[in-house]
Specification:
Strand 2, helix 6 and strand 3 form a beta-alpha-beta unit. This protein has an eight-stranded mixed β-sheet with strand order 7-22-23-21-18-15-16-17, sandwiched between helices. A six-stranded parallel β-sheet has the order 3-2-1-4-5-6, sandwiched between helices. A five-stranded mixed β-sheet has the order 8-9-10-11-12, with no helix packed on it. The protein starts with a strand and ends with a strand. The chain is α/β, with parallel strands linked by helices and 525 residues long. About 3% of the residues have low confidence.
Amino acid sequence: MFKNIIFDMDGVLIDSQPLHYQIDIAVLRASGYPAELSDVIPFTGTSNPDRWPRYKAQYNLPQGVDELIALQVETQMSLFSREDLTAIDGIPELLRALRERGVKTAVASSSSHDLIDLVLRKTRLAGYFDALVSGEDVSAGKPAPDVFLRAAERLQAKPEDCAVIEDSPNGIRAAKNAGMFCVAYRNPTTYSQDYSLADYVTDNYRELPAFLLRENGAAGRPCSCGAGIVSADNWRDYELIDMGGGEKLERWGEIKVIRPDPQIIWPRSGDISLWKNAHMRYTRSRSGGGRWETLRPVPASWEISYKLNADSVEPDALKFHIRPTDFKHMGLFPEQAVNWEWAAGLIRNAGRPVRVLNLFGYTGGATVACLSAGAEVTHIDAAKGMNQWAKDNISLSNLSRVKHRVLADDAVKFIKREERRGSFYDAIIMDPPVYGRGPGGELWKLEDRLFELVCACAKILSKQPLFVLLNAYTAGFSPIVAANVLQKSLSGLSLPCRVSCGEIGLRASAGGLVLPCGMYGRCEF
């Protein structure tokens, strides 16, 4: 059971984030910049001292930062004073349940003390909290951990004994940087956010009392199995446009593709005209396999990019070669972006050199992400063609100078040789297939060899490991299986770690349904 729960305010206790967007847009327009919603969403969760210098620099505003902040505060207090503010559904019940069990609670918000007091008074939540911390109380705002560490201090609690409830990527990073367990609340009013670093994801507060108050050993180290599904929503060059009738309509850059997916058992219900301009369609054959049908002219291959840390102003885009393959794939699994974000974030925040082993590396999505974060990466895949594709992606992303190896080998055999050589890794990524063969014809079946694989990986982890990531696409296993395998195989290390699991997916632009694309298990040391 968690003994200390720290709540963000905007988007967590109240649906106020749209008001904050409205305020920032109004101030930017009054300052001479024709702001739109897309201009302010990337700054969700940042404090005024962090946000307005960035606004000023990015949009070339003539006013000084202090003047901009003063206008923002004046506009904010006026609007919030007029609004009828209510708590998000389930919050009062959650706070009562925590109070009844003796759990200490705090608010840690980037907002000012005046606004926090106003909101808690108008929502009648003030009496539930033992401590209030504002962005005004610390020198560095989110994603720095300061505001959460100050809240833990005021609760007289250790960071590892605290859980944070957040709704923004900056807040989630701040919680993880503070060494705390993080629950991400998927608030529909804060648009597509990256929750990949969170330990648990929910869109329903009524399920949280049972999770937060359960008796499960050391506080701050539960397995967040059953966390639901996290979707890769930060893409610009990829889009799941629509799905139905056993098929999905996707956009890869400017090229629209129709591909089959057996999980899509519901009929098409959106705008049928969306499907009429597809460039290519993959049709399965009754005898097995399938073929591509070209509907409109397409290049043999093309490029797409993905921007890690979408709320950053740094140009850290990853680039990939895309082309249709004979086995339906396009050379990239876009849903894996949630794992790229998670791994790259841990590497950046490690503050030390990190060696990564990427097993079953395919065309190098995770390899490129880890290299871009500054890690040394060894990429292993049995298929030489995929390895060459990975090398091309590394070069395309201008990462050839970062230390790496790309090798064609059987994963388990390579691991055992590394153990004999005394070669160790700080982080290991595994994306094993359900069925396959190694370069020497070695048979691989997931259910028969997965546990052996993870146990072997445990033997080549360094003395200061950072993380282990297990990803799988089989529909036959629950994500809890991935968590159980990690916990069982890594238990002999006698190192504290946090294991989480869940599903990853892609959200369709038409209708907003999420297509499940696989499961993950993560162990963070």
